[in-house]
């Protein structure tokens, strides 16, 4: 029997508790997930269901109260701060609702910045930034400042910045939340294209069911546990 490939990201009985005593809140109460290469996964759930907490733990931004988060087979909690920072910088790309572009840098400079901060020489960083901008169809806008770009264009630059490090995993927090429906569909189309053509693994939190429909897998959280985990075609129309 051929062994199944190792998941890119996996959680085992993942728990997160905030506060103590009467004020204690169990944000996650034992979440088991395994997400492989080339998956586009949407996470949905009502406010307080644990979506943002889960994304924070998957990205190594926060540490669990119990259980494990395994990135390419390595438990993030066993890393010291420096190793975990390197893992985030080199293996995980982040895309946020608010774009988080530096206003004084051009699109190309924003995309090249993570590479330069990691010690990549400027000419190579610029070359890779140009390639990443090409992936999101922003080649002709790479010399523009964020203020000269539409919201949809800024989010595509932010996506290129996440991709330029060639991450194992991209985590997107409400990536279309600040976009109109037209730009939202454009960004989601690009995300799915990247997954299907490049085998990128992408997990996004969204409240928008129309955007979640672009994913091939939908995980619903409620009260800190997985309520359902369905792949496209498994659930009734």
Protein topology:
Blueprint: E1 9-18, E2 25-35, E3 40-44, H1 51-58, E4 66-71, E5 74-75, H2 81-91, E6 92-96, H3 107-117, H4 122-135, H5 151-163, E7 169-173, H6 181-198, E8 201-205, H7 209-212, E9 217-222, E10 225-231
Parallel strand pairs: 3-8, 3-9, 6-7, 7-8
Antiparallel strand pairs: 1-2, 1-4, 4-5, 9-10
Helix pairs in contact: 3-4, 3-5, 4-5, 5-6
Characterise the protein shown here.
- This protein has 237 residues and is an alpha/beta fold.
- The chain contains 7 helices and 10 strands.
- A 6-stranded mixed beta sheet has the order 6-7-8-3-9-10, with helices on both faces. A 4-stranded antiparallel beta sheet has the order 2-1-4-5, with helices on one face.
- A hairpin with a 6-residue loop joins β1 (9-18) and β2 (25-35).
- α3 (107-117) packs across α4 (122-135), α4 (122-135) crosses α5 (151-163) and α5 packs parallel to α6 (181-198).
- The longest helix is centred in the C-terminal third of the chain and has 18 residues, at 181-198.
- The chain starts with 8 loop residues before the first strand and ends in a 6-residue tail after the last strand.
- The model has no long low-confidence stretch (mean pLDDT 92).
């Amino acid at each position: 029997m051929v062994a199944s490939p190792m998941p890119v990201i996996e959680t085992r009985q993942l728990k997160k508790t905030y506060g103590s005593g009467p004020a204690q809140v169990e944000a996650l109460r034992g979440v088991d997930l395994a997400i492989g290469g080339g998956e586009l996964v949407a996470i949905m759930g009502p406010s307080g269901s644990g979506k943002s907490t889960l994304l924070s733990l998957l990205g190594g931004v926060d540490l669990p109260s119990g259980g494990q988060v395994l990135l390419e087979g390595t438990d993030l909690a066993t890393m010291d701060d420096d190793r975990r920072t390197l893992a985030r910088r080199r293996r995980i790309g982040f895309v946020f609702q608010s774009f988080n572009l530096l206003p004084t840098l051009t699109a190309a400079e924003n995309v090249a910045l993570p590479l330069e901060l990691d010690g990549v020489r400027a000419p190579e960083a610029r070359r890779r930034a140009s390639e990443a901008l090409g992936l999101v169809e922003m080649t002709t806008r790479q010399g523009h400042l964020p203020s000269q770009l539409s919201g949809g264009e800024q989010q595509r630059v932010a996506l290129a910045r996440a991709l330029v490090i060639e991450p194992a995993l991209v985590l997107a927090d409400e990536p279309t939340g600040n976009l109109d429906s037209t730009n939202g569909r454009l960004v989601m189309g690009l995300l799915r294209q990247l997954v299907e053509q490049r085998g990128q693994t992408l997990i996004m939190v969204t409240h928008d069911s129309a955007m979640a429909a672009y994913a091939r897998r939908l995980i619903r959280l409620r009260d800190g546990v997985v309520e359902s985990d369905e792949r496209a075609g498994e659930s009734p129309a």
